[in-house]
Structures are given as C-alpha cells and as structure tokens.
Design a protein that fits this description.
24% strand; 8 strands; elongated; alpha+beta; 41% helix
C-alpha cells in the first residue's frame, strides 16, 4: 500500500451503518503496517487472532470499534510492507480504548504463559517466547509503521456486507498544491462525487471516502480517495462510469474538469493501490 512505502494508506476501508455515519461522518482509522518475513505469514495471522482480534471484536460489540480488518496488497514489490491491520473508531477516545485493550491482552497472554511454566508444564523445555518476541520473529520490526487517518467524506451503501465478506479496496493518492485544498474539494464534489454516489446507490460500490492523515507523517500526498467493492468487476464498472460521464460532456466541459484538477493538484505525484482483505469485520454484520 502507499503507506507501506512512505506512509500507509490506508485504508481506509471504513465502515458503519448509515445511521451511525450521520452521527459520526468523519471517523478515524488507525493503521499498523508490517513487513512480514517470508514463510511467517501464518504465524503473523495467528498472532492477530490471539492478540488483537479478541480486543477489537469485544470493543465492536461495545460500540467502540466500527470496523477492523487485515489487508494485503494485490500489487507486490512496490514497498516494504506486506500486511496492514486497521481499525476504525468514531474519535480519539476509541483509539485509546483499543490501544489499552491490546496492551492488557499482551500482558494477559504473557502472564498465562508464565503461569504455565511455573506450574511445571514445561520445566524441561525452553521458556515460551513472549508475545512481542513472537511478533518480532514473524516481522521485520524496524520496518513497522503506524498511521492515523480521518475521512473528510464517508459514504456507505445502504446494504450491510454479508458475513464472511472480504472486500477489495482501491486507494487513489493525490497531492494537493499548497493553498488549493478548498479548490480540490470543490472540484471533487462537483465532478466526481455525483458519479460515485450513483455507484453506491446501485450497489457497484459498497462504500467510498475522501481522507487525509490525521497526524501528518509524509509529504508524498495530501489526500486519498478509497473505493470498496465486493468483487473486482466493480472496479471495471467504476472506470466505465467515469468514462461515460466524461464522454457525455462537451469538449469545453471536459477541458474545464481537467483544468480544475490540474490547477489544484500535482498530477505527477498521483499514485494508486489495490488491496484485498484477509480478515474483515464490520459492526452489525450478521
């Protein structure tokens, strides 16, 4: 993912039911991007399921976590990161609760291992590695990166994704020129948002958003747009919808659109990312 090479993106694959989205239209997403060592992919996912999953699932049941998942890039070889763990919350208090819960879960797992050793179950064996030691064995730890992003615009579909759904997400990274953020947003809302809203309404897109880093860590981009689909064919429909929208316009209108975006952004800095989920959870999913 882009954030894996300079920051991660993200994803931001953010999810919540429409009613909740109206109450909290700009959710935060915390990202942890890991470079998992070759052959250690299963060990890494087992750690995710033992450490983070119980915490995030419980906080989701409590209404704190709106969604969470694990993603990998479908376009390999472009950056050091291989796996990203993300979770979405309404505000900073949610991040505090997740981070505190993870720390408590790590301490519990290590205490359980220590108790098992003290009970003599493994007296003759080498003491079990601690949770963080197992993580360091599975990943190239110095390459780990964390990010926090916020959706400026979040548009979910009206239908909850089915249980077991593993969406695909595309991220388009944009570098808006200094002082041109309002001009870019105006162009996006006028020319791109209507097309995307129709694709959400007809079910082609299950959600989309316009996001920025909440805590700035990179100068490679300023904004990113994400699109989530249940099947890769959705991206073909996305492309066709934009082609059709531009084709129906006059040459003058197309020129105006090009001018609006090139005036506000650096086209040479634009990049894209395509990810698939290995784990995906959303609040209210049956």
């Amino acid at each position: 993912m882009k954030f894996r090479s300079s920051m991660f993106l993200a994803l931001a694959m953010f999810w919540c039911v429409s009613a909740y989205a109206q109450q909290a239209p700009q959710p935060l997403t915390h990202w942890s991007v890991y470079a998992v060592k070759p052959g250690k992919e299963e060990d890494f996912l087992n750690l995710v399921k033992a450490v983070g999953q119980p915490v995030r699932d419980k906080l989701m049941a409590d209404g704190v976590v709106l969604a969470w998942g694990v993603e990998v890039s479908m376009l390999r070889g472009h950056d050091e990161g291989t796996h990203a763990i993300w979770y979405t919350v309404a505000d900073w208090s949610g991040i505090q609760k997740v981070e505190s819960g993870i720390a408590a879960q790590v301490a519990k797992l290590d205490a359980d291992d220590a108790k098992a050793a003290a009970d003599g179950k493994k007296k003759s064996a080498k003491p079990a590695a601690g949770t963080m030691e197992r993580l360091r064995d599975a990943v190239d730890f110095p390459k780990t990166k964390d990010y926090i992003t916020r959706d400026l615009l979040f548009v979910p579909g009206q239908t909850m994704p089915p249980a077991g759904s593993l969406p695909f997400v595309r991220y388009n990274f944009i570098k808006v020129k200094p002082g041109k953020a309002q001009a870019y947003r105006a162009a996006f809302d006028k020319y791109n948002k209507p097309v995307l809203d129709k694709l959400v309404a007809d079910g082609t897109l299950v959600a989309y958003g316009l996001a920025v880093e909440e805590v700035k860590t990179t100068g490679d981009f300023t904004h990113y747009v994400w699109f989530a689909v249940n099947n890769l064919d959705g991206f073909e429909k996305l492309r066709n919808a934009f082609v059709a929208d531009r084709d129906r316009r006059s040459a003058e209108e197309r020129e105006a659109i090009t001018e609006a975006f090139t005036h506000a952004t650096d086209p040479d800095a634009a990049r894209s990312e395509l990810d698939r989920h290995l784990i995906f959870r959303v609040a209210g999913q049956k």
